[in-house]
Every structure is written in structure tokens, then in C-alpha cells.
Sequence to fold (357 residues):
Amino acid sequence: MGQRKRIAVIPGDGIGPEVVRQALKVLSAMRDAGAAPCEWDELPYGADHYLQTGIALPPDEPARLSREYDALLVGAFGDPRIPDELHARGILLRLRTELDLYINFRPARLLARRISPLRTVDDRGVDLVIFRENTEGAYSGLGATYRPGAPEEVGIVVDVNTRRCVERLIRAAFEWARSRGRRRVTLADKANAMPEAHGVWRRRFAEIAEEYADLESEHRYVDALCMELVREPGRFDVIVAPNLVGDILSDLAAEIVGGPGLAPSANLHPGRTGLFEPVHGSAPALAGRDLANPFAAILSAALMLDELGWPDAAETARAAIADAIAARKTTRDLGGELGTEAAGDWVAARVRQRLGA
Ligand code: IPM
Ligand code: MN
Fold:
């Protein structure tokens, strides 16, 4: 057996710890069966840590995490005691930018027709992936609030779109589409309202698309795309988008395939330590009540297994989730009656069974 992969686990706030615990049950099953030789350390970053120490993430921590670990698995950040979610920015957005994790990979795949709220889903099902830019755009942090609370208040943020970052994301999307046999790549932006910011997306996309003439490429304004996603979700394969556009689209796509309880994500820079997290937030109202759906966290761990070089283990985890949905061994949001812990136990047991362990 090669060297064990090392994972840093940051459960975070709200439902984060309870859903991450279920993902770790699945990883333990994989590890025990020899399918994913890994070990992990749990780190305390989150609202409690921030309130106690005043530090969201120590200055050198992103570099250390990237040096000492092969992957980061995180839960969720957000706490009603910290109104502006400053610590979430200080942890999550900092890790994304300082580790230069420029691809936010957000798959939306419908695992059973009954769990989509849409009746426009046809025999194609839904199986799309959003490539969201993850280091700049409207998340640049460049801006200011002038005279907060005063009648003259002004809020400004600069939407930064550098050709280098636009291009590397577009290329990643086309490369992935080609390598996975996907046919269509759709660019989503708002270049009609903000050509100064998004024109570079239109131009580079059109030029790069010529290098991928074997694939179909198309452009949509994001507002029109939202309508089309609801009208005909089955026609989309790969969607590439600026940061904020991709953030919003990925929640829409998640809802189409069963809601936040099922949406995983991977923050990637090929060849470097990636960060894996459910798309959902910390859901304080659900926290500690054994109600949260752990499948998004488990599916995020599956994306991590893919990146760590264990695609078979990843497929086993996804298959176990599909089995759970088919057998209605789920939390209530998906029509089952299980709590968070029991749903995690069921999937972990299924993984063991599938691995013959
Ligand atoms: C997400 C979240 C974050 C984002 C928040 C918590 C800053 O919504 O991962 O999609 O906007 O990127
Ligand atoms: Mn979001």
C-alpha cells in the first residue's frame, strides 16, 4: 500500500459537524476496506473559534494546510452570532483565494426522478456540471461601504475579471467536457448589462471554443439561462460562469436535482490540495436536531476521493447514495424518515456491503 493520504477536516458551524461526521463514517468504511487509505485531523475553525480567539484562520494556515494535507473536507460556515459572516469569508473565501483554487466544480445530477420538483425533467434526466470561477469576480473584496447606516450610504464592490483567470477556467471546462465525453459547453454571464466586466468572458470563450470544435459551445445571459434551466434542464452538460453568476446558478441547479441536501462541490487547482464542501450553508435552525441531510457532505467526500486518485471508491459512495434514495433510506427532505445519523449509518453500511467488507 502506498502512503496514506492526509485529509484536514474542518466541520465548521451549524449542521456542518453533524453532516461531516456522516461523511467520515463513509470514509472510515472505505479506509477499513482498503479502498481509500487515508487518515485525517479535525481542525476547530468556525464561529466558536472565531468568537473565542478573534481569529478566523491564522495567517500561515492556508499555506500549512496545503503543504501538510492532500485534501480539505469542510462542513459549513455561518452563525447568527456573527451577523456579517466575517469568519466565513475569513475561512472559506480565504482558502479559495490563497490556495488559488480557481475551479469551483459543482455537479448537479438527478439521482431519482421523483426528487426533482420539476415536471419538465424528461427521459434524459439532469446531469450537468457548473464550472464556477472561484478567485475573483464580484468576490474580489475590492470595495468599500461609505457612511454605513447614514442616508448617504454607498456600497461598492469591484467585479474583477482578469483574462488569465477567465481563460484558465474556460479551458478547464472544455477539457473536462472533452475528457468525459460531454457534448455541450454553455457560457453564462451578464455581458449585456456589464460588458466592461464580462466582455472578456464572451471574447475568450468564443476564441477558445474554436480549439474545441468537436464540442458544441453556446452563450447565454444568466437571467435567460435560469428560465431555460427550469424549462429544459436535461439539455445542459457543462456551464461555465463568473463567480457570482456561478454561485447563484449552482443553487438553482441544486434545487432542480433534489435540493441543498444533495449538492456537493470541489474547489480545485489541478495538482494542488483541493477543498471539498457541500454547497449548502450551516442551517442554524436545523443544527443539533438530527434533521440535516448528510448526503451533500458524503457526495463532497466522493469528489475528494476522485481527486485523491480513487475514482472507484468515489463511484461506490455515489452508488450507495443512489441506493439510499431508491430505498427511501433518507432524511425527510427526500421523503424518508431517517435522521442524520441513521442516514449516514445506512450509507456507510451500504458502502461496506458494496466493497464486500
Ligand atoms: C457557496 C456559499 C459561499 C459563496 C458563501 C458562504 C460566501 O454560498 O459556497 O456557494 O457565496 O461562495
Ligand atoms: Mn452559494
